[in-house]
């Protein structure tokens, strides 16, 4: 039996849902302007305060941007993973969950993403994956490039899974577990090993071998876990906090 929500939804939230439904129904694209305030007040039969609360909520969720001044108003936007990251961070903070929760989640999610990527990744995404490996290897002495290319590799693999939820989840989790901001350092030996396993994953994905891609990603995430557990256990045990890194 489904869970019953005993809390009635506020009018502003219901109106926000109707606005999103209408955006989809009209086929609005990013950059399209929504109807003017007077039209929306009439269409939704609400007061100005309720409408503005609805629009402000949608702005915070990244669905619209409120452009000020003459000719302004609500403009359709493409939501990103920021809202998801904030929501997950706050949920975990109030549970007093440590950063190791994120690493554990990656061990469960990323191997499956690599497996799906071997079956679904586009040629363009595959080229981006290869670029991340090649650019990392060509700049192994550059910490900033190492972190940037590692992030690009994992983001691209998640997107290449063809599952949008995986893409957003990994993007949010990587934002939360930003090694550079948490004070983690990666010696050259570790960077070389990372580049090698990234190449192994890339080759499995490029060959369209799901099981090899899954196994290689499992090996990679397990290696990340061992490295961080050995050198930065205090970081992994740090409680997650919104806007705060270790």
Automatic annotation (TrEMBL):
Residues 9-79 form the HTH gntR-type domain. It holds the Pfam family GntR. The keyword Transcription applies. Keywords: DNA-binding, Transcription, Transcription regulation. The keyword Repeat does not apply. PANTHER family: TRANSCRIPTIONAL REGULATOR, GNTR FAMILY, UXU OPERON TRANSCRIPTIONAL REGULATOR. This is FadR/GntR family transcriptional regulator.
